[in-house]
Amino acid sequence: MKKFGLAKTDRVYLENDFKYILKEGVKIYGDGCVLWHRPNPHLTAGGEQKPSGEKVKGRIGVIVSKKLGNAVVRNRCKRLFREAFRLNRHLLTDGADCLVSVKNADKFPDMEAAGAAFLRLAKKAGIFKEP
Question: Which of 10, 40, 55, 69 is within CB 3.0–4.6 Å of 95 for a Cys-Cys bond?
Fold first, then answer.
C-alpha cells in the first residue's frame, strides 16, 4: 500500500536548515501565520536539478510555539499545514523550502482554512506557479 504522507526528505527537520531559512529567507506575514521561504540550498548553481537530472522538490517545516496551546493543538496545526503543503506542492516553485510559523490556532479550525492560508502566503511570496 502506498503511503500518502511526506517523506523525511520532504520536510525541513535539521536545526541548521531551520536556522538557514530563518536567517536568509524572505519573511511574509499572513493572517494568523508567518511564512519564510528560500530556494533549497542543495540546488546546483545552474538550475533546479540534481546532478542525476531529477527535479529538486520543495520542503516544508512548521514552527509552533508552546504558547499556542497544549500538545494536541500544536500537533494538529503542524498536521494541517504539512497536509496543505502536500496537497498543493505541485502548484509551488520547484526547490522552494518553506517554513510556516503558526501564531493563532483559532484561525485554522480545519483543513480548508489552513490550505487557503498557505496558498495565500505562497502567492504573496511569489512561489506559486499558475496551473
Answer: 40
Phi and psi dihedrals of 61, rounded to 5?
-135, 145
- Kindly report, residue by residue over 118-130, the tens digit of the pLDDT: 999 999 999 988 7
Contact 82, 74 (CB under 8 A): no
The 3-class SS string of 36-70 reads: EEEECCCCCCCCCECCCCCECCCEEEEEECHHHCC
CA distance 131 to 74: 32
What pLDDT digit, counting tens, does each position of 38-80 carry?
987 666 444 555 555 567 788 999 999 999 999 999 999 999 9
Note the helical H segments in the chain: 15-24, 71-88, 111-125
CA nearest to 91, candidates 51, 125, 53, 46: 125
Q: Are 81 and 102 in contact (CB under 8 A)?
A: yes
Sign of the four-CA dihedral 63, 107, 31, 91: positive
Supply the pTM of this predicted model: 0.86
